[in-house]
Amino acid sequence: MSVDLEAVHARDQGLVERALAGDLEAFNDLVGHYQDFLFGLVVRVVRDREAAADAVQEAFFSAFRNLDRFRGGSFRGWLARIALNAATDVLRLRKRRPSEPYPEWEDEAWQPPTDPADDPEAQATRRARSRVIRTAMEAITDDQRRAILLFDVEGFDYQEIAGITGVSLGTVKSRIHRGRLALRDLLADQMELFRE
Predict the structure, then answer these.
(1) Do 60 and 31 form a contact (C-beta atoms < 8 A)?
(2) What is the largest CA-CA distance in the chain?
């Protein structure tokens, strides 16, 4: 499915203008368009569904309060930057107050549902792959993980990621490259899970 980015930008810009004029329903439409995207992005960063929901809610509050600072272009990218900042705040708070490490990883409810026709062995293999990938992603740096998620999972280009994360284009490329190398090394002894 091809997405007409110009049409999306125009739709978003129109909704922003209406929201700035006092139309709360227009902002609610923006929330509807982007809440699942932001939750998916943030939950992969903070690795906690409840904390992710709180961070996404805070991101939307912040976006609403600062809507007049949106300067056009990709509203999705602008929101992603705000949400990643909220996720970073969650991670900082967690480092100050450590809790039980990642009990939510046992909850795979956020994963897309599998086809009921899939056999149990294929489902078990997919779950094992997910666990191995999550463990490997946890082992790389936060900056590398964010860059890889934004590029490989969410589909942002290097320039958009540089804008979202507030670093140079070279730093984005370096983080993705180094993160992928680290993941390759971490996954080397688990490659049988990824062969069909």
Answers:
(1) yes
(2) 57
